[in-house]
Design goal:
10 helices; alpha+beta; globular; 2 domains; Rossmann fold; Jelly Rolls
Length: 393
């Protein structure tokens, strides 16, 4: 290692001082507050506000290889808003993003984030979105090691209540080839199929934890998602080809919260449609694991008069509804039964994450960046559950 190389020379990019639309290459995109917009990898939601974004920045990682990047910046805001990273491939196609919360200043000002850039990414764009304004300064991005990514996750996890969860010892019983690849160092392509919540799982940086547990492993993690989309969409042969077959997975991980939703034409039959995706995956010869939904929306009671107050420990069931009384995302038993019927692996992500949130006593939305998506804390709990499932190999 060349100890004469300064930290600045190792950086991908740095912007000193305050960032604005006058910063070279940056632009401000206005968006009407409250407007419903379609976000490619999240779905259709209320606008997150105006967006100030950087120019497209070419990555300095090896072509066709994933890499971790450390994003640091300072931010001041009067209201909850977001930092954002868009990825692009060599043909300038948009790839699934990663984003999380920028908190009101009473919470924090200095940010140290870890980003997993997938193998297909060749460039990125940085952005901040806010409905009431955010001041950003002293931003830098540099490539990080797998060890640093794991240590970053450890530091975040150390600030949270410990996760009391051990998956069944036979969680890899139906994934023998993947278990062997983990231990033998065989290159193995893992495709994570689903929606924005599956994208949150991918962006938990759990990959660094798996690599630490299995140093010889050569897992190539690919995220294949469409916002607010489940197997009711991926079941069609043309969509299956686009989102699964093209990647030739060795292990297909089907997850997210949208698989049991009805499709836009209100045609029911979610379980049958998941089954059709599984049947098509079997023809590829890959191993398959079906994941039940992890924590996403905060279903605990909300006290508008004291939103930051700790909550009592509570219980939940599969019938638990969120505060707006829409369909529950805590349902997992039908997925377990379907996996058993199909003879594939099942990893229950609902019980450990819902139990964790229920017993945490943390304030409402402590684990969320918006109404339905996880912030870094929520992602970290999902990632730790995934890590423990992989450890059973």
């Amino acid at each position: 290692m060349n100890t004469d190389v300064s930290a600045a020379e190792l950086e991908l990019v740095r912007y000193e001082g305050e960032i604005s639309s006058k910063t070279p290459g940056w632009e401000l995109l206005q968006e009407e507050e409250g407007k419903m917009v379609s976000v490619p990898f999240e779905g259709r939601y209320e606008s997150k506000g105006g967006r100030i974004q950087s120019p497209v920045i070419k990555l300095d990682k090896a072509p066709g290889e994933p890499a971790y990047y450390r994003l640091t910046f300072r931010a001041k805001t009067s209201d909850h808003c977001y930092w954002w990273v868009d990825f692009y491939d060599a043909d300038n196609n948009l790839l699934p993003d990663v984003n999380s919360a920028v908190y009101p200043n009473s919470d924090r000002e200095d940010y140290d984030q870890m980003i997993y850039a997938p193998a297909a990414a060749t460039s990125l764009r940085l952005a901040f979105q806010s409905t009431h304004g955010v001041t950003v300064r002293d931003l830098a991005v540099r490539q990080a090691t797998t060890e640093e990514a794991g240590e970053w996750g450890d530091a975040l996890y150390a600030s949270l209540p410990p996760l009391q969860f051990q998956p069944p010892a036979d969680s890899f019983q139906l994934l023998p080839k993947t278990a062997a690849a983990l231990k033998e160092g065989k290159t193995w392509r893992v495709v994570m199929l689903g929606d924005s919540i599956q994208n949150d799982s991918f962006n938990s940086v759990f990959q660094a934890l798996v690599k630490r547990d299995f140093p010889q492993s050569q897992l190539d993690f690919i995220i294949s998602v469409r916002g607010s989309t489940g197997c009711w969409y991926y079941q069609s042969p043309e969509h299956f080809a686009e989102y699964v077959t093209r990647y030739q997975p060795d292990l297909l991980m089907i997850g997210g919260i949208s698989n049991l939703n009805e499709d836009p034409d209100n045609v029911p039959g979610g379980m049958a449609k998941i089954g059709r995706v599984i049947e098509q995956a079997k023809t590829l010869g890959c191993e398959i694991v079906l994941l039940s939904p992890p924590h996403c929306w905060d279903w605990r009671p909300f006290d508008a008069g004291n939103p930051g107050a700790p909550l009592p420990a509570m219980t939940w069931t599969e019938a638990t509804l969120e505060t707006k009384d829409v369909a529950s995302s805590l349902l997992w038993t039908p997925l377990m039964e379907l996996a058993a019927k199909q003879g594939i692996a099942f990893w229950n992500m609902t019980v450990p994450t819902a139990d964790y949130v229920a017993q945490s006593c943390k304030p409402h939305n402590y684990f969320n960046r918006d109404y339905i998506h996880n912030n870094d804390r929520g992602k970290q709990i999902i990632g730790r559950c995934l890590q423990r499932y992989f450890l059973t190999a």
